[in-house]
Structures are given as structure tokens and as C-alpha cells.
Amino acid sequence: MRKTIIAGNWKMFKTTSEAIELANGLQRELYKLEETVDILLCPPFTALSEVSEVITGSNIKLGAQNVYWKDEGAFTGEISPLMLKDLGCAFVIIGHSERRQFFGETNESVNNKAKAALGHGLTPIICVGETLQEREAGSTFKVLEDHVQNGLKGIEESAAAAMVIAYEPVWAIGTGKTATSQQAQEAHEYIRGLLAKMYGQEAAAQVRIQYGGSVKPENISELMAQPDVDGALVGGASLKVETFAQIVKKAAEVKK
Ligand code: PEP
């Protein structure tokens, strides 16, 4: 049975003091929840240390939004997996569509980052998903195949089960347009099939696949009711205690 994973991607929002306040609020709301769900906060780099302090010893885990693949060196502005581990991160988001769109992230860089994360015991959340244009052209599956096969190239079967994949249709991110639960299930099932071809059925059955794209308290239950939807990567709705806590609680309810 795959453990549900709900992650909040705070993107470039929240100063350090705002981040502390949000993390404290979430901890107060969610501390009673049994460990049936992995709850994950991904603040900006600048707030990782403080949020780490707030959630240490709680049922909430820490993730970063990006990472570089080298351990150290002359790479101005970059952050290494070692540095993230040092701050208490257990997860890192890799290849988010905003990084692919605005910062030149490619399958190759995603692949380097995923390998580096796994090599340091960080769980990569590898984002894949099609644009609206690609969906309308009927190439959703082709894009997913490209992102999954090239993003995970060379990653061993033994590491596969440790990964998380986030299916995030680009047209649903921050737009208020959610994929229907059928569209989400169809894509997740396809991704699991790709993983099965690469790693075998058993390993593929262990990989958690999150859905991301305008997830909110109103649509989480239906999404989570799909057999291949194992959680959510939440942007906008993760920035408020009330909405994120509701999403976590409702997800826990569906998969209990
Ligand atoms: C995201 O940031 O990954 C995301 C899915 O954003 P939103 O929930 O705002 O669509």
C-alpha cells in the first residue's frame, strides 16, 4: 500500500517570518493526524532553516523546490544536495514546469538532479506534464513518455521505489482549471505503465504519483479516490493554513 503524500509548494512566496507563522499554524492544525500521510512543506530556500526548526519532531517533513547536482564548487547561486540535507530536508522538487518554462530546466538537468538527490538520500519529486498546446495536439502521452523515460534515465530499479512522480498538467497549474479526476487517473495509470516497462510491475506499484494543478479542498477527495493518485502537489492552496490543512485531512480520510 502506497502512503499518501501531500506536499505544499510555496514557490516564491513567504518571507521568513511569514513562513514561520504558516508552519506553526499548520503544525497546530495537523499534529493530531496519525502518520498515515506524509505531509511535506517546501518553502523557499531562505526559510528552510527556520521552517525546519518549527517542524522538527513533528509529523511534518521538509522539502526544497530545487537543487543543483554537484556537492560543492564554483556554481554561484546554486544549492547542493548536501546543503539541503544539512538543513533537514528529506525531499526535493525537481523539474517543476515553472523551472522548465522560465529557467531552462531540461530532461537532462532533471535527470542529473534526480540522481544527485537519490545519491544523498533525498527523495526527488520529479514533475512531469503536458502544456495545453500539447494536450490539444493529442501528444499528452508522448510528452509523459519523454519526461519519464529521459528524466529517469539510468536510475536503478533499487532507487525507483524511493522516487515520487508529480503529474502536473501545465494548463492546470495556478489557473484554477483542474484536470478531471478521470484525466488525472488516465495520466497516472499511463505513467505507472511506463515505470513498469522500465522497472517491472512490482517496483512501479511502489512509486507514489502525486497530482498537481489547482488542487483545493473542494476537489481533493475526488482526485484521491482514483486508484493511481497517491497524493497531491499543492501550490496556491498551500499558502494558507486553513486550505492546506483541509486538503491534508480530506486526503487522509479518502485513503484510510
Ligand atoms: C504547483 O505549484 O505545483 C501547483 C500545482 O500550483 P497550483 O496548485 O497553484 O496550481
Tally of individual domains: 1
What is the strand tally? 8
**Structural class computed from helices and strand pairing:** alpha/beta
- Evaluate the radius of gyration: 17 Å
Provide the succession of SSEs.
Answer: EHEHEHEHHEHHHEHHEHEH
In order across it, which strands form the biggest sheet?
1-2-3-4-5-6-7-8
Low-confidence segments: none
State the CATH class.
Answer: Alpha Beta
The mean pLDDT is: 96
CATH architecture descriptor text: Alpha-Beta Barrel
What does this structure look like?
This protein is an alpha/beta fold. The protein has one domain: TIM Barrel (Alpha-Beta Barrel). Helix content is 45%, strand content 16%. It contains 12 helices and 8 strands. The chain has helices spanning 16-30, 45-55, 81-86, 97-102, 107-119, 132-136, 140-151, 157-160, 181-199, 201-206, 220-224, 241-254, and strands spanning 4-9, 37-42, 60-64, 91-94, 123-128, 164-167, 208-212, 231-234. The protein has an 8-stranded parallel barrel with strand order 1-2-3-4-5-6-7-8, surrounded by 6 helices. Helix 1 packs parallel to helix 2. The longest helix is centred in the C-terminal third of the chain and has 19 residues, at 181-199. The protein starts with a strand and ends with a helix. The mean pLDDT is 96. Phosphoenolpyruvate (PEP) binds next to strand 8.
